[in-house]
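Aim 2 progress update. The chain analyzed this quarter is reproduced below.
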Amino acid sequence: MHKRPLVRSVCLALLVLVFTTSAAAQNGTTDISFTVAMPRPHTHLFEIEVVIKRGSTVVVPAQDQLVMPVWTPGSYLIREFERHVQDFEVTDAAGRPLKWEKTNKNTWRVTTNNAREWRAKYRVYANELSVRTSELNSNHAFWNNANLLMYLDGHLKSPSTVRVIAPDVWKVATGLPAVPGERNTFRAENFDVLYDSPFEASNFKTLVFNVKGVPHRIVIDGEGNYDPERMRGDVQKIVETQVELMGGEIPYRDYTFILHLRSNAGGGLEHANSTALGYPRFGFRLTRGDRTTSASPNPGEQREPDYRGFLSLVSHEFFHLWNVKRIRPDALGPFDYTQENYTKLLWVAEGITDYYADLTLRRAGLITEEEFLSATARAFQALQNTPGRMEQSVEESSFDTWIKFYRQDENSVNSQVSYYDKGAILGLLLDLEIRKRSNGSKSLDDVMRYLNTEFFKKNRNYTPADFQHAAERMAGSSLEEFFAKYVRGRDELDYNAALSFAGLRLNTGATVEAGKPVEKIFFGADVVQDGERLLVRRVIAGSPAYEQGVNAGDQIVALDNARVTRDFFNRRLEEKKPGDLINLTIFRFDELSTLLIKLGGRTEGTYSIAPLPNQTDAQKQIYRAWLGSK
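Predicted structure tokens:
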């Protein structure tokens, strides 16, 4: 097998990451150390060395296996990180080559020749900046260890330390604890901790604050239009609010927010005492009125990001500190890094976390009651405009995330429901249900604190039945109908029944004339402008477009024989009435044809949430306790 030697020269600009334990100080141990080097950052190639040392009393196996994770926790998709590995080679301590072979897509088997120490070297290509992947270039290095570092089979519980040698102008940030007295050296007590601790190395900026004497830092790589003092203060409020929500105890020694600012950055990934965040560099403008959110009445429509959207992202990822990282669903930890880890509880892990993201902002005073309720109404409307809500339950959505959620296509809106979106709404409905049944004495907050005490602190994972039991314990009665209809089932949600507990009602905003809602025309296809072409992006199931032959991917050339752009097309449709006929001239697979479409009608408007007249004292009390209002 051809093996090309790795570059061995090291310059002052070399960044080296070394994982090592106490060099066989204990004869009965197996020490595992890694070196991650990048002598030529512009090539995007990390150079990895893993060294295995066994103590004198450890039996040396005839063969060892190195395994590369195929996914990283928090992002539920097999991403095949091993596909970026190249130039693998193995030697003993004296530099003599050892035999090896690849036995499957992500496993390398090494014949040890009874050597107590051997090492493998390989390169990993890294040129994708996201919160779940890795990027190396001349400006910075960011990596998730599951993307780069193989583990020794059977040794996921083994400890390691991390030593980083960086260029003088670069700093290193990670959530791993530092080893006293050793520069840029960190310790990982096992591989779950190692894979849960991303690294950023660059000339980043740092914002620091303390909560209850515990240090927190925001590490910022990139430039943007943010106000550092406002960001520092507001992130601190988020931390303080959630710490108090969960009982006032801080379960970490320090916390690191790693924030990448790029024109197209977005998303977040949670870790035990850190998080990786991406946000548009100029997405920090302050707006008045409704908080910016991705929830929209029109499927596929995205609102422009703003500062409140950033705070919501921070709030979501920080709440994962408890919900997921400590309060763990059945299959989520310890992890199997070689295959899918199935659970039906992502609607709790992600959806309820999303609910608390915005609820935290309200309780911290970072958004108004009106902004929270407006965002909630938009979320209700977005769900109601998703036909897939009738095709998939949130438990099914959670379970199928490995094959569906990260692989959206033009039919997803018709066949799927997001466990984020519906899960957040279910969190709100369940919260109000518990408050009503307990006469305001308990809430979803108590459910989360109960799970933290009874499961995290007792080192147990919870099941769907456990979560339902915890909710029923706080409600003081059975919630079987709620879970059967809305969690395991696909019934329509009763928004007003829940909102009424807090003295609120949902208005659909439909225009009424002569006592009847006015129908607006309904076409049912989502169109986008692609240069000079108007394309159908997706078609809503059951709509006139769907039933009369419009396909995703069609290019609309003309409407009633007039050439169209998106604006022209939408304006002409607005002039029509339900029942009108239109001629669509389309290209499909480069063939020209015409479709005769009869437009439908439906009552629609902008959803809003308003107070009920003549609220009772009990409703007012629930409202105040729920939103932290005075």
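Residues 205-505 form a domain with the Neutral Protease; domain 2 fold (CATH 1.10.390.10). The CA atoms of residues 338 and 391 lie 30 Å apart. These observations will guide the mutagenesis experiments scheduled for the next reporting period.
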